[in-house]
């Protein structure tokens, strides 16, 4: 997937991003989130086709594996989402982004140990991992612009969430990795939806009920 991302320099400087309008920055952040969701969905499908035996497909929809962001205070119902403020929408996106950066980096190490892992899958997951960091930068700049406050950080940093525990059996390890990708894809869709709702609110502040 080729695209020009947030237009920010990769050295951590936000000078180019802060020079553009809030509206333009939000559009770029949304486009970034859309690409991340699309590529993560492709990665998840490819992983399933390559490594999940057909008899186990039904198990992938069961609750045996818990998503690592389940404990985050992220609104889930339509009514909750409609009632939260623009500030909390951005907080929610940032919490999701920051919670997934380390697990996706760890997934890269895991995939490198797979036998016959297709290069396309490895490249896609690596791309998503790298661009998630860029998305974090873009959201933080957006927060600074919209809320007129310094760089926002969350207090949520439970390292135990990211630990996989003892070495599992191979199939269990594969299922956990698949669940990780599946959960991230769902959360990537949430990020995209929250950002699009924010744009809608900014465009029409009176008819978003």
Automatic annotation (TrEMBL):
Domain of life: Eukaryota
Transmembrane segments: none
The gene coding this protein: smtla
Main location: secreted
Signal sequence segment: none
Family: Belongs to the somatotropin/prolactin family.
Name of the protein: Somatolactin-like
A Gene Ontology cellular-component term: extracellular space
Gene Ontology biological process: animal organ development; growth hormone receptor signaling pathway; positive regulation of growth; positive regulation of receptor signaling pathway via JAK-STAT; response to nutrient levels
Subcellular location per the Swiss-Prot or TrEMBL entry: Secreted
Listed InterPro entries: 4_helix_cytokine-like_core (IPR009079), Somatotropin/Prolactin (IPR001400), Somatotropin_CS (IPR018116)
PANTHER family: SOMATOLACTIN ALPHA ISOFORM X1-RELATED, SOMATOTROPIN,PROLACTIN
Keyword Secreted: yes
Alphabetically ordered keywords of this record: Disulfide bond, Glycoprotein, Hormone, Secreted, Signal
UniProt entry tagged with the keyword Signal: yes
Gene Ontology molecular functions: growth hormone activity; growth hormone receptor binding
């Amino acid at each position: 997937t080729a695209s020009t991302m947030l237009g920010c320099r990769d050295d951590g400087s936000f000078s180019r991003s802060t020079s553009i309008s809030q509206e333009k920055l939000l559009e770029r952040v949304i486009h970034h989130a859309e690409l991340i969701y699309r590529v993560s969905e492709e990665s998840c499908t490819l992983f399933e086709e390559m490594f999940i035996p057909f008899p186990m497909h039904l198990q992938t929809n069961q609750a045996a594996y818990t998503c690592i962001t389940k404990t985050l205070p992220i609104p889930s119902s339509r009514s909750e989402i409609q009632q939260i403020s623009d500030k909390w929408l951005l907080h929610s996106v940032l919490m999701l982004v920051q919670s997934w950066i380390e697990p996706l980096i760890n997934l890269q190490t895991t995939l490198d140990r797979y036998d016959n892992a297709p290069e396309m899958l490895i490249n896609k997951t690596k791309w998503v991992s790298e661009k998630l960091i860029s998305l974090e930068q873009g959201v933080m700049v957006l927060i600074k612009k919209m809320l007129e406050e310094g760089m926002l950080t969350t207090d949520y940093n439970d390292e135990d969430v990211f630990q996989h525990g003892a070495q599992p059996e191979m199939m269990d390890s594969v299922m956990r990795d698949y669940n990780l990708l599946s959960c991230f894809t769902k959360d990537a869709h949430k990020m995209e939806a929250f950002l699009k709702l924010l744009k809608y609110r900014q465009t029409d502040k009176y008819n978003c009920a």
